[in-house]
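Request from the bench team (R.T.):
"We need a structural guess for the complex before ordering more S-adenosylmethionine. Sequence and SMILES attached. Just send the tokens back."

Command: build protein-S-adenosylmethionine structure.
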Amino acid sequence: MDMCNHDLKEDIREYWSKRSATFDLAFGHRIPQGPELDAWSAAVRNAIGPEPRRVLELACGTGEVTNVLLSLGHEVTALDFSEDMLGVARTKHAGNARVRFVLADAERTMEPDQAYDAVICRHLVWTLTEPEQALADWFRVLKPGGRLLVFDGDWTKPTRLGRLAVLAVGLIERFVGHDTYYDGAMSEKHASIMTRLPFSDGLTTERLEPLVQEAGFIEIAFPSHRPIAAAQRKNADLRNRLRTLFYRRFVLVASRPADDAS
Ligand SMILES: C[S@@+](CC[C@H](N)C(=O)[O-])C[C@H]1O[C@@H](n2cnc3c(N)ncnc32)[C@H](O)[C@@H]1O
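Reply to R.T.: structure attached below.
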């Protein structure tokens, strides 16, 4: 890793550590019981099946996706490189024997070869500094036939409908003021990190698919993200309902070939 990349990673880690205490307060991060937990659970179940599995969760943050995985009965190794984020997750899941938290770099997990039935991450890939290296590592730790499940989006530019939603939220905020937790995602620090990332001009399925393929994955599919967005809108106020329209989000599922024992 060159020094420049090292500095970038440190900046990313510091940024998330600073956000750890209030991360769950920003809309879209917490996954409450009810329609949202049901929608996230269905997406995971559809991707990796209903049986309890050995799952590696990358960049677990405050442990919200961890909760989805645990509620489905999986045995979870949840890693993050921010000790502060892990601290929140550890507290949330204290006493649960089915989860092991690990302080580690998601791009070089140091987990054993072929150890997991599934590798899952939400909102990590857009902020990777070495996506090819990361995908090779995730392929390595999966058992033959294991599944990769990625939830992510293009956070650099709103969609056409999203631009209208951004305007509408701007209008609402003239009256009710800014939501500082949400705007944290758009701070100067975030913008400075964004410009230095490999996906600085946006993470799209078109950019990700060939990389996933080159890493050796097959059966790459993009199940709809809509049920999750619809569930998020169910109990949200108008401003947050509009926020579900800002960006193009996606789900990617892929497999390590079942006959690949390399
Ligand atoms: C947007 S948050 C998402 C957290 C969680 N996955 C969720 O969806 O609630 C990004 C997380 O990725 C972690 N992260 C970013 N790059 C990482 C890396 N290279 N290795 C491990 N964790 C990383 C950050 O510390 C942070 O917790």
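Two things stood out. The mean pLDDT is 92. Residues 12, 16, 29, 59-62, 64-65, 80-82, 85, 105-107, 122-124, 127 surround S-adenosylmethionine (CB under 6 Å).
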